[in-house]
Amino acid sequence: MLKKHVETLERCTICHDQCAFSCPVFVEDKRTTVYPSRKAQIARAVLRGELPFDEETTLLFYQCTSCRLCWRWCVYLEDRKDLAPTLRAARTEAVAQGVLLPEVASLAGRICNEGTPWGDLADQYAKLAKEAPSDGPKNLLLFADAATLALNPQSFTAFFILAETSGYAVQLSKSHLTGFELADIGLKDMAEAKRTSTQEEITNWFGSNDAGPVVTLNPQVAYALNQWYSEEGVPISGEVQTHSAFLAHLLKGGKLQFKPSPNSVVLQDSSYHARYLEDIKSPRLLLKATFPDFREANPSGIESNPAAPEGLAPELSLMVKEGMSSRRLRELMETRASQIVTLDPYTYAALANVVGDEVACLDIVQALALQIKDY
Amino acid sequence: MAISPTILTEIISQFERDLTKEKFSTRITDRLSCARGTCPYEFKWLQQGQYPYIPDIVVWPDNTEDVVTVVKTAMRYKVAVIPYGGGSGIVGGTVPEHGGIIIDMKRMTNLSINDINLTVTVGAGYNGQHLEDELNRQGYTMGHLPQSIHSATVGGWIAPIAIGTFSTKYGKIDDMLVALEVVLPTGEVVSTSPAPKESTGPSLKYLFLGSEGAFGVITQATFRIWPRPEARIWEGYTFPTTGAGLTAVRKVLRTGLYPALVRLYDPDEAAARVDALGYEKGYALLFMAFEGRRDLAELERRVADEICRAEGGLPKGPEPGLHWFESRLSTQHLVETNCLPGGAADAIEVSAPWDKLEGVWMAMRDALKPLAQEVHSHFSHFYHTGGSVYVLFYALTDGDAQKGEQHYLRCVKAAIEASLAAGGTISHHHGIGRLKAPWMRDEHGVGFDLLRKIKTVIDPEDIMNPGVLGLGGNARC
Predict the structure, then answer these.
(1) CA A2: distance to chain centroid?
(2) CA distances from A342 to A274, A284, B425 (A)
(3) Facing residues of B353 across strands?
């Protein structure tokens, strides 16, 4: 597993640390130990047998938010190195060798008992499935991912409004997990089973006669289904779209219109949207069309300093020192925008938790649903 | 492990009493992480297996009192103490040859801005890019933008007397530094005056600038800052020879212009960029940036343009400067070469007065050419009386990492001795560390004995970064 990543480990160890400042784990923790290059150095030492796989080394491999900012600032401009999958492989290998951190064991236990990292979401799903618009000339499949169901279920309702306005009936997916969330926490078999069933559901959807698009409110899901599934040898037969990509397409085609809002708005990018899917345009297109007073809050020219360990389940988030959301909120609030717009459920939940009453925090589909023309 | 188990136990007990448990560690992951900087020979050691030099303890102070505690404890037990900033040093300045205690300074991040005095007072562990971002947010710039800005810390800028790429206008770190706070090996704290100039005997500030942790631990510094410039205007030229480019730069500075940034690349180093931009093959490349009020920056650009054209420069507009700016932080070719076990690459930077500068460049280049597959040079810092030359070498041996290390040291020796023979220095802004320590006597002559005496007086037990600068420890001088 980790052996496959030997080149990244070499390159990231022998490096001038130009990514160090950007690592959100380092920004909060400030130990050299959590520099991306040092995590690589320790993983490399483990791979070479110079250090053991134990709780000390393994903990370091979990201290990564997968934000991909180290990739963004990599000195190898012509062949950027991505440490996140390498650390994921290190975690997977640690579990395979029997090193199960208590937090990981607790998370795995809950998933086995209740089905998702956020517990049993069946009631939430059933309620939303009833709300989904069922009449429309066109259909779409909305991936009912567990993170969004747990952290921002209102965004499903907002999306239903946007879809209905554009003439879409919405079917919620039966799958709630992609398997990506499970691969490095000791649930390899369950991860494979989820991947198989999810791939089957989406493949069947795309294969049906009146298949419309498949859309997700969680950019990590789009990354997992479009890219990770291919890397794992189980590609899906169509492209899963993020909310922003789907809605931007409707906007450009004149299928969706918004009334301009007098409110000022600042966008909090999603790491998966911006750096894995490399789409920073769609959300900006939508927001600029709706909020003429659109603002950016990005020092160092970074498209997004993360506000949360995006994609991580609660126990794994705890391994990253607290402070990301408060620090990022300060940067966002310095723009004096009256609304913060997020693109993923993890960031929405983290910012909503610290934002207070001074400014509104909404997911992009919520912000847009409030501005639908003539709705 | 260099500290005996008994003493280590006593030091740990002391730290448990005087610091909180979260502020120090004996975990191998923490100790290995701080065991190295980014000197190519440290990379070669990584490639040779078990790392040879590892500290016994890592401490993360978040205030000056914590540093005092650490230094006093080290003094009591006579163990080495090495202040550690961003780990970006490339001359082996933080190698824990004697084990001991690494003080990882990056939690020292207090910051206050004085708008009346136009200064910022900042903890020594503040990350460079985080500082510039914070200043920018509040409408200022420090103007200190070194290539290592993403990892280097404030203390790490002062320790080797560093410099940023926009130095011609904003100055070197020694020009920017207003005041310092330093913890001495005795645990006493020295604070220098924040006045802009004093006539109060030898300047203590300058005693610690460049001291690389040999005389104490820099804990805080006050720097001058500037209102964020309204405009940045780029202008570039190709020249048929490097000498013609150097003459143009010299004349620009003689006229009294201070572009924020001036960079001149010899034809070898310019080749890739010249090729990418479709300019005249075999030409040297110069570009400058003018910053400040838009009208003043534009006026400077216009006068510099007249001079460059008169010296044979072919104008290229803002393109080459912008092209460089986009990729300015990448060290891809250097790290790619050092990644190969037998590879050895580095950038050796020295300085010389105007009348020796071209000779130093040619001597270093000639000394390295037989040893390396590629030798490039550029001139990136210019002064009223001279400039610096940066010679980059990329050498490939077919041997292992040990051969790579030996060859690396051969290249460094050749470059430095060529510079000295041609009237240049042994370093311009990377510092001395342990890598260049063997040439400190050649550089300073009798002055080096004076430095040794100063070290003995300030640090009689030789606990402060022993060996750095060729002072104390097992210095190879």
Answers:
(1) 23
(2) 12, 11, 54
(3) B386
Q: Are B384 and B253 in contact (CB under 8 A)?
A: yes
Chain A within 8 Å of B34 (Cβ-Cβ)?
yes
Instruction: Return the closest-CA partner of residue B172 out of B210, B134, B212.
Output: B210
Residue B31 and residue B73 in contact, taking contact as beta carbons nearer than 8 Å:
no
How close A21 comes to chain B (CA, Å)? 5
Cβ separation B107–A15 shorter than 8 A: no
Sheet (strand B177-183) strand order: B111-114, B119-123, B217-224, B177-183, B189-191
pTM metric for this prediction: 0.95
ipTM score of the complex? 0.95
For the record, the structure tokens of A179 come out as 């398997």
pLDDT at B477: 42
For B70, the enclosing helix (H) or strand (E) is helix B64-77
Selecting from A21, A33, A35 the residue whose C-beta is nearest the C-beta of B130 gives A21
pLDDT attached to residue B2: 80
Residue A70: closest C-alpha in chain B: B150
CA distance A368 to chain B (A): 29
Rg (CA), chain A: 20
Q: What pLDDT was estimated at residue A209?
A: 79
Sole residue written with tokens 């910051």: B111
Flag whether residue B337 sits within 8 Å of chain A, measured between CB atoms: no
Question: Any chain A CB within 8 A of the CB of B406?
Answer: no
Contacts of A334 in chain B (CB under 8 A): 137
CB atoms within 10 A of CB B272: 12
B64-96 tens-digit pLDDT: 999 999 999 999 999 999 999 999 999 999 999
DSSP state at residue A343: S
Among chain B residues, CA nearest to A37: B33
Q: Measured between CB atoms, does A3 come within 8 Å of chain B?
A: no
B247 C-beta neighbours (distance < 10 Å), count: 19
pLDDT digits (tens, 9 = 90+) for B298-334: 999 999 999 999 999 999 999 999 999 988 888 999 9
